[in-house]
Amino acid sequence: MDVLVLGAGVSGHTAAAFLRKKLGKEHNVTVVSPSLYYQWIPSNIWVGVGRMNIDQVRFKLDKVYRKWGIDFKQAKALSIHPDGNNSVSQGFVTIEYTSADRKGSTEEVSYDYLVNATGPKLNFEKTPGLGPANDTTVSVCSYDHAAHAWKELQKVIEKLKKGIKQKIVVGTGHPMATCQGAAFEYVLNIAFELRKQNLSHLAEITWLTNEYEVGDFGMGGAFIKRGGYVTSTKIFAESILSENNIRWVKRAGVQKVEKGKIHYETLDGEHHSIEYDFSMLIPAFSGHDIRAMDKQGKDISSKLFAGNGLMLVDAKYKSKPFEEWSIEDWPTTYQSPGYDNIYATGIAFAPPHSISKPMKSKNGTDIYPSPPRTGMPSGVIGKVVAQNIAHRIKDGTNEHKHTASMGRMGAACIVSVGYGIRKGLGATMTVSPIVQDWEKYPEWGRDLNATVGEIGLAGHWIKLFLHYMFLHKAKGYPFWWLLPE
Amino acid sequence: MENLHKDRGYKDEFYPPMPTRFTKRIRTNFLVQVYNFFRLNYKIMKIVIKGHS
Ligand SMILES: Cc1cc2nc3c(=O)[nH]c(=O)nc-3n(C[C@H](O)[C@H](O)[C@H](O)COP(=O)(O)OP(=O)(O)OC[C@H]3O[C@@H](n4cnc5c(N)ncnc54)[C@H](O)[C@@H]3O)c2cc1C
Predict the structure, then answer these.
(1) pTM for the structure as a whole
(2) A102, A110, A58, A64: which is closest to A84 by C-alpha?
(3) Reported CATH class of domain A2-122+285-395
(4) Which residue in chain A has the smallest CA separation from B20?
(5) So where are chain A's domains?
(6) Residue that wins the pLDDT comparison between A474 and A277
(7) Domain encompassing residue B20
(8) Radius of gyration over alpha carbons of chain B, in Å?
(9) Which of B17, B30, B51 sits opposite A409 (nearest CB)?
(10) Interface pTM (ipTM) of the complex?
(11) Between chains, do B44 and A384 touch, taking CB under 8 Å as contact?
């Protein structure tokens, strides 16, 4: 049997590793990914403040895949043909090579099972003027973006050292952007670095966010037990911002970016702008522009993908009001409803709806975070899909022995600042489950014993530990499979 | 001299709780943090394992 994995990020790489481990050599595992490198994205934050260089957060995939016996094609998927075409009956994917030696050439790669783990397309185009290509705001979503962000930040630091005041704005660059956790971590790291160099008094730092309340993080916020009270992450996040002299603008949907100025609309329908000398804004995420074709070459993308390009899976997509949302809406096997040999994992799967409550401005603009799919669920889903495919191949059944729902699994988010054994500080946040289960936990939506929010050196150690642990695992070093996702 | 903290009670930025010196010291106290490191890792592991079957 041929198993084809599209994407070699957290989810696809995990899926490929477990597929190879579970399947005998008579089966082929192929990975298609446009970059030669695996990157540990969470550590890009350290690249963005000059604490790590890009080679500390990435490694070459070809060597690891050769060792594992996985066929690696440095290419990007262009289209999926689940029914084959007039000359081939098996499903295949058309790919275009991105490697220097074969750049631009295409190939049809057939499969018996397909895993789409292509992650998010960083959709800067959805916000006019946004992003490094426009020489306006920077990004930390990939290692090259983060390295560029650090270059730009250094210019700001130089000006501050000369006594020139600087305005720094960090947050979300689209009314429905997600990944607030990463941006939040970056803004705190900038504040930390400036404080260390005694430059804080010259910098005005603003957290600009589409969250209804700071601390929503795209998961409707959370409640934690702290100091004898059950408190909202709003208090936790605002406290961290205040302590670091960061002011915040919430309920803001960025509409347009110019050099030095960001235009945004707030939920009350008003239009504002904010000036900046340095800004890092997370773009909207969407699926990659992969098309789906039937046997005759007719476009059937709507059978495989949602409108935003993310892949449809076994979620309940029927639109319903927030009050009726339930964890049962969330997928458990990540199997395509149209084709039982196609799966989507990590950010590539289309969620049924957001986790945060949808909000509309007076002008009808949706301003609220899309649901995040962080590293932990992305890895877990990749593993579960690999286990199910391996089981189906070995047993010849359509049974899914393994399941993983965002309404049952938890997530940990560690926002860490500084660097070093004695010098850093980390805010550790865990939630369980990620999507609130109001039936099981009617009062707070989540298990209060598993939901924590704490600040301390320990969180920073965990972040450092995870960096090395996940790279160890991704490189397939001894006992990698024992390490959790 | 102007006291910048005079309007603390009226600004959003000063409404959330601020850590006391004691809280800040605990955050970097080596022994407490070693204990927290293992405690938090245990909590995270439990979440990962419980989340899928
Ligand atoms: C700055 C930052 C910090 C973060 N910090 C944390 C954190 O601390 N903790 C946490 O849990 N999560 C964190 N996250 C989120 C985490 O990185 C994501 O959840 C995770 O990377 C998602 O995994 P994925 O495999 O779905 O997508 P990705 O990791 O993005 O992988 C997608 C893969 O698909 C490939 N691809 C793209 N297009 C194609 C195509 N057409 N054909 C084939 N392959 C393609 C890409 O090259 C890539 O290899 C952070 C994210 C960012 C941006």
Answers:
(1) 0.94
(2) A110
(3) alpha beta
(4) A243
(5) 2-122+285-395
(6) A277
(7) 2-52
(8) 19
(9) B51
(10) 0.86
(11) no
